[in-house]
Amino acid sequence: MTKPLLQVEGLKKYFPIRSGVLAKKSGYVKAVDDVSFYVNEGETLGIVGESGCGKSTTGRMLMRLLEPTEGKVTFDGKELTSISSTEMRKARREIQMVFQDPYASLNPRHTVEKILMEPLIVHKIGNTKSRKKKVYDFLEIVGLSSYHAKRYPHQFSGGQRQRIGIARALMTNPKLIIADEPVSALDVSIQAQVLNLMQDLQKELKLTYIFIAHDLGVVRHISDRVGVMYLGRMAELATSESLYAEPLHPYTKALLSAVPVPDPKHQREQIILEGDIPSPSNPPTGCTFHTRCPFRMEACTSVVPKLEEVKPGHFVACHLYNEQMQH
Amino acid sequence: MAVREIILEVKDLQTSFFTDDGIIPSVDYVDFHVKEGEILGIVGESGCGKSVTSLSIMGLVPSPPGKITNGQILFKGEDLTKFSEKEMRKVRGNEVAMIFQEPMTSLNPLFTIGNQLLEAITLHKKKWSKKQAKARAIEMLKLVGLPRAEELMKDYPHQLSGGMRQRVMIAMALVCDPKVLIADEPTTALDVTIQAQILKLMRELNERLNTAVILITHDLGVVAETCERVVVMYAGKVVEEGTVDTIFHNPQHPYTKGLIASVPDMRYKKQRLYSIPGNVPKPGTIPTGCRFAARCESVFGRCTEENPPLYETSDKHKTRCFLYDQKEVEVNDKTAATS
């Protein structure tokens, strides 16, 4: 039996909106609103959603790069949300992050060696000699060579830079990697290289991934389970086979049908959603999706649907699957 | 159906950038054509020259350092590369229009939507009255599916969402009834559900107005869903050209094959993605011979020495690869027969 490595309960992040001369709080942007999930050891949890759905904010809160407004994050039996920032700093040795833009997340003035050595210095791991060796080892592991150590980030291509970003995340031997759109800035052929690398590393180093992305094809490819977010809430959460074969939430259905498939003969019924995503500063009442939902019922405009298990391992937050609400 | 005539033809186009490191041809002898009312896709990864090609057609290559160094761009039989800036202004927006990737940066934040639409109309239709122009602007906004068009004329770009802005851009591009619309990554900055809306709109408008569309994108899914014919570019050259069906179901060039295989498909799970080894050659360091040779699995002697021409492998299908040279095909057949 695998135990959850990370457990998230009721996570919320409200950003205050300040206006007027005295900058009084005039409201909140509910970026993440009551999100709960868990990640088992050795698996990959994908989080998908369109811009503004709160997927990146969720990822940042797990590492406490953003302080959650409410909620509990438990990692490996330790509650991360209640510890001091000094202790949190130590805990980050076990949780590392890979960012979207490999151009912005590497210091242009440091050599690759210095960039990779820094996590070891921060966490006081080893001495200069063993650190150097580790840098060379990990450069080889991510498919670069030891002679790359003396170069600067601008001397690398986008794909190579993302490899450096991954190597940096691996330096402290973490258990969990949070990857926030790690391949969306890359070309398809390079994207495939990086995805394969991430899968190989997972097997080799027994890593657990939280993979945040907007590309549904990429997420299906890499994830064991997938969560779909919409306007700060988790709309559906299931194994990737179950979610892609039989999506339940109307939003997931529309989202999956909207993705262009690279096959001109592919026939399918496309559900085209009307309108845009509402602003998270003034989200619709009840189910946040009800303004665009083709199956809207009366209850949807007033009652917030809870994420409930409707099939083993398949969770959905929609009144259509809640018998009490149907009557 | 009537035979559709070729409306725009690009012949041996070479666009070079004159830099401190020397002359770098970013588009190198590119040929293709678009017929009336057709949707042509140009696909390729970053740096393949697809955007420079479109800027060359519009006469918008930043000069200096860029310059069209060879070739012709024939629009209705007239060579656009020979046009003066003044003549080009009449073509641009009027006959050939363009929409860009990021609608926020292509709209002026200081002017209302109505103001910007009217500017486009009055520039080209000098004889129109104000009233006529305004009616046309509102008609176009309605055509691209924007609600409350009259009020929208008074709105500023920041008041609209990304999808609505892209609709305004399309309305603006189509306001003078162009014959050709060049769309450079029109949906890349948009979310999938909005992308689906915009692609549907573009297909509908293409059918209704019979505007030829050149859709430039890196997304193979978008191409499969929208285009009739596809041109695949790699490192400044066209490597394959064919109908959308042949390109996706019978790709010939090793690059096209690799590109299609490396896209994760949402419909089923592949155990491992195919990946093309190596990187796109940097501009200025283009090797002799086939530009894909260094990353190609089927590379052989000739590839690194000669530059392969575009072979016509069947009706409407062209491939720039020596594997499809008749001589090589015969040799391969012989070796297959003897072994």
Overview of the molecule:
The complex is a heterodimer of chains A (327) and B (339). By secondary structure, chain A is an alpha/beta fold. Chain A has helices spanning 55-62, 85-91, 112-122, 128-141, 158-170, 188-205, 216-222, 240-245, 250-258, 323-326, and strands at residues 4-19, 24-40, 44-48, 70-75, 78-79, 95-98, 176-180, 208-213, 225-230, 233-239, 308-311, 314-316. In chain A, helix 3 crosses helix 4 and helix 3 packs parallel to helix 5 (158-170). Chain B contains twelve helices and twelve strands. Chain B is globular. The relative contact order of chain B is 0.13. The mean pLDDT of chain B is 88.
Brief summary:
The complex is a heterodimer of chains A (327) and B (339). By secondary structure, chain A is an alpha/beta fold.
Key features?
heterodimer, A: 327 residues, alpha/beta, 8-stranded mixed sheet, 4-stranded antiparallel sheet, 10 helices, 12 strands, 30% helix, B: 339 residues, 34% helix, globular
SSE inventory with pairings:
The complex is a heterodimer of chains A (about 325) and B (about 350).
Chain A: E1 4-19, E2 24-40, E3 44-48, H1 55-62, E4 70-75, E5 78-79, H2 85-91, E6 95-98, H3 112-122, H4 128-141, H5 158-170, E7 176-180, H6 188-205, E8 208-213, H7 216-222, E9 225-230, E10 233-239, H8 240-245, H9 250-258, E11 308-311, E12 314-316, H10 323-326
Parallel strand pairs in A: 3-8, 3-9, 6-7, 7-8
Antiparallel strand pairs in A: 1-2, 1-4, 4-5, 9-10, 10-12, 11-12
Helix pairs in contact in A: 3-4, 3-5, 4-5, 5-6
Chain B: E1 6-19, E2 22-35, E3 39-43, H1 50-58, E4 66-75, E5 78-79, H2 85-91, E6 96-99, H3 103-106, H4 113-124, H5 130-143, H6 149-152, H7 162-174, E7 180-184, H8 192-209, E8 212-217, H9 220-226, E9 229-234, E10 237-243, H10 244-249, H11 254-261, E11 311-314, E12 317-319, H12 326-338
Parallel strand pairs in B: 3-8, 3-9, 6-7, 7-8
Antiparallel strand pairs in B: 1-2, 1-4, 4-5, 9-10, 10-12, 11-12
Helix pairs in contact in B: 4-5, 4-7, 5-7, 7-8
